[in-house]
Q: What sequence folds into this?
């Protein structure tokens, strides 16, 4: 079974996506052999209040059980706690995603404290999107920095009971973060370089790695091909076992 | 997944200090992903952006050694710095191309492609009938002093219409870069450059035709699975994929 931890659906002004309807995205992931993808709203990345887009994506994906919506939270917003209440009723997956660089706050800012506490109480995991695009290839008038890995490390160390899944870290960033923390996991979507995944697994335990493709920004095929470099138990853990444990899914049905 | 045989037009079997182990890893991963042949373009960054004659000789000396040791998988490209003396450029191209059978010329970031200093390089490429692979990028933060943009490539292509030019890193050149060189039939693009961002290969195939696209990995900066995923994942037909992965490279290099 393959669970894709890193996917999004919607309109992005800087790139045209082939998977521009939920039906196409659902079929695409099926053709790639992926059972379930955790999908957040692309529009929510650039929205001051992601709520409207979160609700939209729940509706859009409703007919597609292989696309499970993940809610985007902006902890700067005063109604963040109420939103978590609402979203717990709307979604099946106990994880939320944040885009600190796009929503303009630091991971050590005051807004993070009540947010992390609330997530801990709810036993909700946190996805931190480290970047969307290579900073060299961003739209020149819309340059957004990546999330600093030292900020992620400090956040994880300050809140050791929270599970944090980092999306789109480079391999060297992932090694740095994962070696410095106990409660952080990373997806493979942005890990690159010769022999990248085997080399990564020489440096960090496979329990800390999850499968993610960063579709539709990147080709799903690249993430799938990277997994051909490993086999056996490690492969199973990265494809589904680790994320199942993080999200406390237990036995995940093949058709969600 | 059935892996399509490929020729990699842009590989650095060594990038940094010469290492047999690095070369072995590169060849092993290439074999794992059915990359039959790699164009070894040199450890271009080892001596900085503007290497002297002895440094260029040393880089090419390593490539000669690599090709001699593994002729079944590596084809040499002659690395040049157009800032070097003309006599040296003549001697070095003669050494690498005429004597050692290298099949192309590689240029990095010492001089922009629109600079007249490239004239001697292009004349030599024309004389020996080999393509010139030029590092190219449109960077959001601005290019380095001597780093070429696709507009520089267009200028060069217009001045030397009979010499084939490979604009490296179409992933970094993007949509604008493809449009810049579209009307110059002697310009090819290689598929490397940054992460496997979706849509660029499709756009290039649409505007340039699949016959002007060559698979390039830029290994070891990037991995074969990550970069092959651009072609495997692109929404183009199988005929186009086979051309991009292998046939165009064989034709351009005359190694069918």
A:
């Amino acid at each position: 079974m393959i669970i894709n931890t890193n996917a999004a659906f919607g309109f992005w002004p800087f790139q045209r996506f082939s998977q521009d309807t939920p039906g196409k995205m659902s079929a695409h992931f099926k053709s790639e052999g992926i059972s379930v993808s955790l999908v957040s709203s692309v529009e929510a990345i650039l929205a001051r209040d992601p709520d409207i887009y979160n609700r939209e994506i729940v509706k859009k994906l409703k007919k597609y059980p292989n696309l499970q919506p993940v809610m985007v939270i902006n902890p700067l917003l005063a109604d963040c706690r109420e939103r978590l209440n609402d979203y717990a009723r709307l979604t099946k997956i106990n994880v939320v995603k944040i885009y600190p660089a796009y929503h303009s706050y630091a991971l050590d800012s005051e807004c993070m404290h009540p947010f992390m506490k609330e997530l801990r109480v709810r036993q909700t995991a946190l996805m931190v999107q480290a970047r969307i695009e290579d900073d060299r290839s961003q739209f020149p008038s819309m340059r957004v920095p990546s999330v600093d890995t030292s900020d992620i490390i400090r956040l994880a160390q300050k809140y050791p009971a929270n599970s944090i899944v980092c999306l789109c870290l480079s391999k060297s960033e992932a090694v740095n973060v994962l070696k410095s923390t106990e409660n952080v996991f990373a997806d493979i979507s942005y890990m690159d370089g010769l022999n990248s995944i085997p080399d990564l697994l020489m440096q960090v335990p496979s329990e800390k790695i999850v499968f993610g493709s960063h579709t539709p920004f990147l080709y799903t095929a690249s993430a799938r091909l990277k997994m051909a470099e490993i086999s056996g138990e490690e492969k199973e853990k990265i494809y589904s076992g680790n994320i199942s444990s993080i999200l406390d899914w237990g036995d995940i049905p093949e058709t969600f | 997944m059935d892996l399509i045989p490929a020729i990699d037009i842009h590989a650095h079997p060594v990038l940094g200090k010469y290492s047999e182990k690095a070369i072995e890893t590169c060849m092993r991963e290439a074999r794992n992903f059915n990359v039959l042949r790699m164009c070894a373009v040199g450890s271009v960054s080892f001596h900085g952006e503007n290497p002297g004659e002895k440094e260029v000789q040393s880089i090419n000396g390593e490539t000669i050694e690599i090709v001699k040791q593994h002729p079944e998988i590596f084809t040499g490209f002659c690395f040049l710095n157009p800032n070097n003396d003309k006599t040296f450029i003549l001697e070095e191209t003669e050494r690498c191309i005429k004597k050692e059978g290298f099949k192309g010329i590689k240029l990095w970031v010492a001089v922009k492609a629109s600079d007249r200093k490239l004239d001697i390089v292009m004349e030599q490429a024309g004389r020996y009938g080999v393509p010139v692979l030029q590092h190219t990028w449109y960077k959001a933060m601005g290019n380095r002093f001597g780093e070429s943009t696709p507009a520089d490539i267009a200028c060069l292509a217009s001045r030397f219409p009979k010499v084939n030019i490979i604009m490296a890193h179409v992933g970094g050149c993007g949509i604008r870069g493809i449009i810049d060189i579209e009307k110059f039939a002697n310009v090819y693009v290689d598929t490397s450059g940054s992460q496997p961002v979706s849509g660029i290969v499709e756009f290039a195939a649409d505007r340039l035709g699949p016959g002007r696209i060559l698979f390039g990995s830029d290994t070891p900066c990037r991995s074969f699975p990550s970069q092959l995923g651009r072609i495997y994942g692109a929404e183009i037909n199988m005929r186009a994929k086979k051309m991009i992965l292998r046939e165009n490279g064989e034709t351009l290099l005359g190694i069918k």
Remarks:
- Chain B has a mean pLDDT of 97.
- Chain B has one domain: 6-253.
